[in-house]
Amino acid sequence: MADQPWYTVARRRRWLLAALVISQTLAGLWLLQQGLPAGAPGWAAMLLLVVFATLFLWIGLGFWTAAFGFFFLRRGGDRWSPDHQCPEEAGGELPRTAVIMPICHEPVQRTLNNLAATYRELQQRGDLEAFDFFVLSDSEDPEIWLEEQAACADLCARVGGHRRIFYRRRRIRLNYKSGNIADFLRRWGQRYRYLVVLDADSLLEADAIVRLVQLMEHRPRAGIIQTAPRLARAETRFARLQQFANRCYGRLYSAGLAAVQLGDATYWGHNAILRTSAFMRHCGLRRLRGPGLFSGPVLSHDYIESALMGRAGLEVWLEPSIGGSFEESPPTFEDDLIRDRRWCRGNLQHLWLLATLDRLRPVHRLALVTGILCYLASPLWLGFLGLSGYLGVHSESPPPVLPGLVGGSASFSGASHLLMALTATLLLGPRILALVDQALARRTTLFGGAARLLASAIGETLVALTLAPVRMVTHSVHVTRALLNLPTGWHGQNRTGSQHNRTQWRQFLWPMATAGAILVLVHWQAPELTPWALPVIVPVLATPLLAHWLARPVPARGWWFVPEDFRRPPVLARADAGAGLAPLWPGLSRFEQRVLAPPSAEPAARNRQDLHGSKQQRLARLVERCAFGGSQALSAPEITLLCEHPEALRALHYRVWQAEPGTPWGRVLERLAQTPERHTEPAGIGIEEMEQQWVEVAS
Amino acid sequence: MDVTDPLYQRALLYLRAAGHETGARTRLRLQEHFHRCRADRQDLTAATLLPQLHQWFDLPGQAHMPAPPRLVRGSVGYPGG
Q1: Which chain B residue has its CA at the smallest distance from A169's CA?
Q2: Which residue in A61, A185, A449, A503 has the most C-beta neighbors within 10 A?
Q3: Residue range A199-206: average pLDDT?
Q4: With an 8 Å Cβ cutoff, are B63 and A682 in contact?
């Protein structure tokens, strides 16, 4: 890799970044030392300095990355980026590429509408021939995966996607999402030169996909090219805030990150293109064999996969200049924290991989460390506040006049003022730089005008500051739970906000209890510190109210405008216009619908299964039990087993249609008789109608 | 024919479930088939009815996903092995 021209440039930039971050940290350390209270216990002061140095390095890295991004955006982009290096090509045959969408208990209609939008865009562009689409399901609940199958069949019918859109559900679910992708690769990976990975909430414009393929073709050493997805389709206050932050400040961070990392960037798991052969050869993930948390499947696979790609001598690029790449924010604060719980666990596992994987590139090691620090920073902040309070109480100085690090100092000196100013600059500087950048780039109108942009940024900052203590305490609980290896569920993510309910507040109980205990402790030990603990504690105690307010939907033309509010990209409009698959027979479960719907006259040859022995006997028993007891007589795994065997399902079908009135299936047939007559057209929305809706929405 | 006959009603429901239209023409055809079966002294029960319906009418059946592409087996390489 060192022979590549970009590498010398990257080294220079990284040294500059390191110098800036280290200098700023040393300055901060000196200022802190000046402000430490006299007579403070030595061990506590030393520990405070170590924690402070770590945290100051951490926030400094974010600030200077954004500053790099500002610099490069002002210069009109980075000439070393793949997009700058590769001229736009027109026409030409595209290599075979698979577009894969791993899903697990997702809102399937919304997900497939996203896929349909991308499909239709490629179709309209005339590039569909090169692409196959795979929906790779890990859903376990038969009600969900039966709906997925029905929706996929409906999608195929709607867009004419037969032999181009495929659905596969793994029967043995190993290693979560990375295992799902590996399973696909083992079966069909060799058919495709490239793999475009989508998440369930991803949307990629056809232009973006084709451009990614062109960049890979132009850069044979590139193993992965990652786009910087923009948040879109936010409906709740929380999601709107996240979306605004992503669209307003995000471009600075991603430009800065891309400029520093160059060909050593990281993969974010979706909205990216992979070189299939290289990925298959080098990026398999074994189960971890360490103790506790460090055993079992790798949860956060993407950073590791990019590190493995770099280890194999291939390049990984982040290309933020490719537009048309979208994803969605979690709709509520609770969902965001639930996702964080998963990511926290996954990122902490990287400690083991850092220790056991050799020959990783330094930049990838640093990326893994920053990923870990994303969550470890929270307990460090908590510890920092605790140590500051401890030092304030145990110093010989008079009672503190300000909280934390300046507390207890008799001389609330210029050094303390300077340190506060430096800290505020590091924390708020990227936001200010982003606003300046938007103004200089004449993009303020895209956010509703300069005044509205400023108001939105102030509002977003206030909410972010209020939520920061909640995140700090919650992440600390996540880290503790992860290190103790307490289990976390792995279910589909709530992407629409429709599943918001009171039970989600349960996850706030621990942080609230922790915050309450800290407040009591502070008030008991050092009542003079209580007023300074309140700004941290009160938001945590008020989390349920905050979360409830943030989960409320925002009117379409309400707050925190982003460019997509004024000019809707066609791919988003298409996805929004796509209607869902109407239930065939409302009031009947998916399983009941599957059993009652007449099978094809002859089962396809590949579905004809001659079962012998114990499995056949088990299926026969299941058919018998279900025919007598109805769908409730079977457990979810038993329903799954039946549905996976068309011959058994066919036998059950004929049995239930003979059901007497008053029996479980007889009652289901009565409900069926009461439903309105089914249309013979495929359910969902017709292509022409969808197109019409799209034109209307887009115009 | 008695159109309230449960077997006849079940047959109609099945046709509906299959997405077949159940207008006057279909009902007439179905009644003719019932007549013919009974005239031929065929044993027309719920068990024998369904396969007959598939013979009498062109029922579309469920929409199925197309078979996935031909497998091309490959292996995944793991770091260090």
Answers
A1: B68
A2: A185
A3: 94
A4: yes
Q: How close A177 comes to chain B (CA, Å)?
A: 15
Inter-chain Cβ pairs, chain A and chain B, closer than 8 A = 120
All residues of chain B having their beta carbon less than 8 Å from the beta carbon of residue A600 are 61-62, 64
Looking at the 3D structure of chain B, how many domains does it have?
1
**Dihedral of CA A15/A428/A374/A106: which sign?**
negative
Residues 6+ apart with CB under 8 A from A439: A450
Q: Is the CB of residue A148 less than 8 Å from the CB of residue A167?
A: yes
Length reported for chain A: 699
Q: Beta strands A222-227 and A315-319: pairing type?
A: parallel
CB contact under 8 A, A599 and B79: no
CB within 8 Å: B61 and A599: yes
Question: Which amino acid is residue A4, in one-letter code?
Answer: Q
* List of chain A residues whose C-beta atoms are within 8 Å of the C-beta of residue B81: 286
On whether residue B21 sits in a domain, the answer given is yes
| Residue B61 is assigned to a structural domain of this protein | no
Q: Is residue B73 part of a domain?
A: no
Query: Three-state SS for A316?
Result: strand
CB B64 within 8 A of CB A272: no
Strands A288-289 and A194-197: unpaired
- Please tell me which of the candidates B6, B61, B65 has its beta carbon nearest to residue A601: B61
Domain range for B12 is 6-56
CA A470 and chain centroid, separation: 20
User: A162 contacts in B (CB within 8 Å)?
Assistant: 66
Alpha helices per DSSP H over A484-612 = 509-525, 530-541, 543-550, 563-566, 570-577, 590-596
Contact assignment for A280 to B10 by CB distance below 8 Å: no
Query: For residue A24, what are its two tokens?
Result: 């700023």
The model's confidence at residue A613, banded by pLDDT at 50, 70 and 90, is confident
Is B76 part of any domain? Answer: no
User: With contact defined as beta carbons under 8 Å apart, do A194 and A274 qualify?
Assistant: yes
Other CB atoms within a 10 A radius of the CB of residue B29 amount to 13
pLDDT digits (tens, 9 = 90+) for B4-57: 888 899 999 999 888 888 889 989 999 998 888 888 877 778 788 888 888 888
Q: Classify strands A97-103 and A194-197 as parallel, antiparallel or unpaired.
A: parallel
Q: Do A657 and B67 touch (CB under 8 A)?
A: no
The Cα of A666 is separated from the nearest Cα of chain B by a number of Å equal to 11
Among B residues 13-72, those touching chain A with beta carbons less than 8 Å apart: 13-14, 16-22, 45-47, 50-51, 54, 59-69, 71-72
Residue A70 has pLDDT above 80, yes or no: yes
Do A286 and B79 lie within an 8 Å CB cutoff? yes
Name residues whose C-beta falls within 8 Å of residue A500's C-beta, 6 or more positions apart in sequence. A331, A332, A334, A494, A551
Nearest to A672 among B17, B19, B66 (CB): B17
Q: What is the C-alpha to C-alpha distance for residues A102 and A139, in angstroms, rounded to an integer? A: 10
Instruction: Work out the percent of chain A whose per-residue pLDDT is above 90.
Output: 65
